[in-house]
Design goal:
Layout lengths: L8 H6 L5 H28 L1 H8 L1 H4 L21 H17 L1 H12 L5 H4 L2 H31 L12 H18 L2 H10 L5 H6 L1 H15 L5 H28 L21
Length: 277
């Protein structure tokens, strides 16, 4: 009796399964590329710190509370010797995240792509072309509403108090807003991706539509700093619109999909034998 041989690495690869060590090695390489892109973005942010800082503090400077300490001048305070260094680092990190977003979003997608069939990989360019603008669009929306959101939050201060806002607290608020809005705008795209790979159907999304919309508003209320109604609505409303757009895409895609069972097979699947022929 011939001894059974263990499948070779090549055979395993031909079947579409990546060995564990190769999978971990690829993950490490993807993380390194994303980190290098982030470092380059941070360096860019460091070089252009002054105009970026003036741009970031503009929402606060639009408020009357920004001129309470020095009339006619926008003022933030610091209470730590090392705060100036961390201010520069945080501002540079914000620039790095935004500038390097095409790279690290691509690395995330490229890490997932090997698990897809060839007919599914054709969506890669479209995915990246949509993912990056969605992230940046969320960040832009966060910046636009930031002055109104700050005005609402600071409006609860008693009239006999002075708004001595710490630089680090303000930057934390800005960073959280930009990241939360940017990442949240990617969630509907994830639903589309799950539909493309066959994990999530339109019928399932339609069935749980009301629950998902409700949870989006709850998410907007919980995740946004301060939890004011304007920020919650500004985050939840676009997410709901994008959710319905994703649902419409799923519906149209499944409606246009061929009904012939052989046509639904992927490039890596064999067609069933017809014994009647």
């Amino acid at each position: 009796m011939a001894l059974l041989k263990r499948p070779t690495k090549a055979a395993v690869d031909d079947e579409g399964r990546m060995p564990l060590m190769e999978h971990l090695r690829e993950l490490r390489n993807r993380l390194v590329y994303a980190l290098l892109a982030l470092i380059v973005g941070v360096i860019v942010g460091f070089l252009f710190f002054d105009p970026v800082w003036a741009f970031l503090k503009e929402p606060f400077c639009e408020l009357g509370a920004a001129q309470q300490l020095r009339p006619g001048q926008c003022t933030l305070v610091t209470g730590d010797i090392f705060q100036s260094f961390f201010t520069t680092l945080k501002v540079s990190a914000m620039v790095g995240i935004l500038v390097s977003s095409p790279v690290w979003i691509y690395q995330i997608w490229a890490f997932v792509t090997p698990a897809l069939y060839r007919n599914e990989k054709r969506y890669s360019a479209t995915f990246l072309a949509i993912a990056v603008p969605l992230f940046l669009g969320g960040a832009v929306l966060a910046y636009i509403i930031m002055d109104t959101s700050l005005a609402i939050l600071l409006g609860f201060m008693p009239t006999d108090t002075v708004a001595a806002i710490q630089i680090n607290e303000y930057l934390d608020y800005v960073l959280i807003m930009l990241v939360i809005f940017g990442v949240s705008f990617e969630l509907p795209l994830i639903l589309v991706f799950l539909n493309i790979i066959g994990v999530l159907s339109h019928s399932t999304v339609k069935k749980h539509r009301r629950t998902v919309v409700f949870l989006m508003f709850v998410f907007g209320a919980v995740i946004t700093p301060g939890g004011d109604p304007l920020t919650m609505m500004a985050l939840a409303a676009p997410m709901v619109v994008l959710y319905f757009a994703a649902e419409a895409f799923m519906y149209l895609r499944e409606r246009r999909r061929p009904q012939d069972p052989d046509a639904l097979l992927s490039d890596d699947e064999a067609a069933p034998l017809n014994l009647d022929d």
